[in-house]
Design goal:
It is a single chain. A three-stranded antiparallel sheet has the order 5-7-6. The protein has a two-stranded parallel sheet with strand order 1-2. Strands 3-4 form a two-stranded parallel sheet. Helices cover about 55% and strands about 5% of the residues. With about 550 residues, it is mainly alpha-helical. The chain is built from 26 helices and seven strands.
């Protein structure tokens, strides 16, 4: 289609020298839009950085586009980083009158990252997850540098590329589907791949646990000897256990979010931090665990009832989870439902309605509470009008919520095949995306002949007495800055400029036996080398001694 359009425009588009140029204008877009049958659709034009464009250019563009709106419906999206008044200050009234302006706000970068992490890693929609070190590298690149979502996506893509190219067992990713189901592997694995799977430590622990069950020895023996049985049965069971673990983990994170919503804002953590606690270690070992338990134990009866209702809704959404495969066999649905029923009917009779004006049931007996009891049961300070049965039911509910969180938020290291589906190459991500300019500059100055492909500066076989001698050897053919850098490495914290210049002159004077450089030329070259090292951050001036400079870098 485009070829036919280009052929119509090539006749009058020849330029100097016979070179043909195509005029990309809105008339060409109109012809393509009519031939492509794009009825009912709209062409979207995005100007990401509106403030970066010249106002006259945007103004002319809007006027030109306005003449084609009848043939090509165009939606113009202007990205503003400042305020809406910037549009009125930049554009003319004639251009603004042609726009049907609608304002909308995008999510902040942190909110976008939280949403992406929840969908990809917490909900497990992607087969590849990140281990503790790689996930920390992913977050640090985003939080400590520039809050760039594009950089975050680039790291994800790089990790996915490394996973599918460098991981020999990445073919197992076809077993995990986006709808959290498990299917057979798309290809038949050979004996070497199956043996590599058996060698994984998590798979060995899985088989060891099965060996303790009734008839487990025959199961393990067949799994180790029969490749078909291992791929068709054992591998599917481990993949299903992994999927169930991800569903239960998602339930645990969502439960923590619901608990946090009932706490003060200062005690709330974003999803990205909660997921870091989940993959970094056992969740009940992190510092936030005690905060969550304190929030639960301080809840009144009404607040606990509301929390249990939210947890019951979350558990109902995860009704397809096979709790026999995760959480050590703890059935979370029965646990939370039983706690909700106990709190609703603590003593076998209906609890008075909240809207009822009748007096609430007092405690049958009063006694002095000990300090230890108040520490373990802080809700006694807040729910003073509850009976002993209600207080006992409230305590049981706190224990049920704690047991649910412990059962759901277990470490991924305990799940089979975690070595395959949890990416751990943090060093590769750091070296690829975290620039180290100091090390690169020091390496370039210390071994300049590798960078400039200079044979005259390289160490010959006759002169080669080891790598240490090669690193310390200074030749007059080196670059002036490299010579100054090599000499400054031999000095201490304070460098005398006169001694440095004398050493530099003794090296440079050997450059040519016939025409030695003059002292003025040597001094100018030395001053330029010193200023370049000062610009690179290797030295700085000092007020203590005006004829000295301070050395700033060490090592390498």
């Amino acid at each position: 289609m485009f070829n036919s359009i280009y052929a119509d425009t090539d006749a009058g588009s020849s330029a100097f020298g016979g070179t043909k140029t195509v005029t990309y204008d809105l008339g060409l877009l109109q012809l393509w839009w009519a031939n492509a049958a794009c009825s009912g659709k709209k062409a979207v034009v995005v100007l990401q950085d509106f403030e970066g464009f010249a106002p006259t250019v945007v103004d002319d563009f809007i006027r030109i586009v306005g003449g084609y709106c009848d043939a090509v419906p165009i939606v113009l999206v202007l990205g503003l980083a400042t305020s809406y008044e910037c549009v009125h200050q930049s554009l003319t009234k004639a251009s603004i009158s042609m726009l049907n302006v609608e304002r909308f706000n995008l999510q902040r970068s942190k909110q976008c990252i939280d949403t992406a992490i929840h969908r990809l890693f917490v909900q497990g929609r992607a087969p590849l997850c990140f281990g503790a070190e790689a996930y920390k590298s992913l977050l640090d690149q985003f939080l400590l540098y520039n809050f760039s979502i594009a950089g975050f996506v680039k790291k994800l893509k790089y990790a996915a590329m490394d996973f599918f190219y460098a991981q020999p067992l990445s073919v197992l990713a076809s077993m995990l589907t986006p709808n959290a189901a498990v299917s057979a592997c798309s290809v038949r694995l050979n004996s070497d791949q199956l043996e590599l799977i058996r060698m994984q430590r998590s798979v060995q622990r899985f088989l060891e646990r099965r060996a303790t069950e009734n008839g487990g020895n025959a199961y393990v023996r067949q799994a180790l000897s029969d490749d078909d049985f291992f791929q068709d049965t054992v591998l599917l069971q481990m993949a299903r256990a992994l999927v169930m673990y991800r569903r239960s983990y998602c339930l645990g994170i969502d439960a923590v979010v619901e608990i946090q919503s009932m706490a003060p804002e200062a005690m709330q953590k974003p999803v990205r931090t909660l997921h870091y606690y989940g993959v970094g270690q056992q969740f009940d070992d992190c510092t936030h665990w005690k905060t969550l338990l304190a929030v639960v134990r301080r809840m009144k009866t009404s607040e606990m009832t509301l929390l249990l209702q939210k947890l019951c809704r979350l558990v109902d959404e995860a009704a397809d989870v096979d709790w026999d495969l995760v959480a050590d066999g703890t059935h979370i649905h029965e646990l939370i439902q039983g706690a909700a029923e106990l709190l609703a009917n603590p003593d076998g009779s209906a609890v008075p309605d909240v809207l009822d004006n009748s007096e609430p049931k007092k405690r049958t007996r009063t006694r002095t509470r000990t300090r230890t009891e108040m520490e373990h049961r802080p809700f006694l300070l807040f729910d003073k009008g509850a009976s002993d049965a209600q207080l006992n039911a409230l305590e049981k509910c706190c224990e049920a919520v704690e047991a649910m969180l412990r059962a759901c938020l277990i470490s991924y290291h305990d799940v089979a095949l975690n070595e395959v589906f949890y990416y751990r190459h943090s060093f590769l991500l750091d070296t690829a995306f975290s620039a180290q300019p100091r090390a690169a500059v020091q390496m370039a100055l210390g071994k300049s002949h590798y960078y400039v492909s200079c044979d005259c500066c390289a160490v010959t076989d006759a002169d080669d007495h080891g790598s240490d001698d090669e690193d310390q050897r200074i030749t007059p053919t080196m670059h002036d800055t490299s010579i100054a850098y090599r000499l400054h490495q031999e000095c201490g914290r304070l460098i005398n400029l006169y001694d440095w210049h004398a050493s530099f002159s003794s090296v440079v004077e050997r450059e040519s036996q016939r025409t030695a450089p003059s002292q003025g030329e040597i001094q100018a070259r030395f001053m330029r080398a010193v200023e370049e090292m000062r610009f690179l951050g290797f030295i700085k001036s000092t007020q203590r001694k005006t004829d000295h400079v301070v050395r700033l870098t060490w090592g390498m």
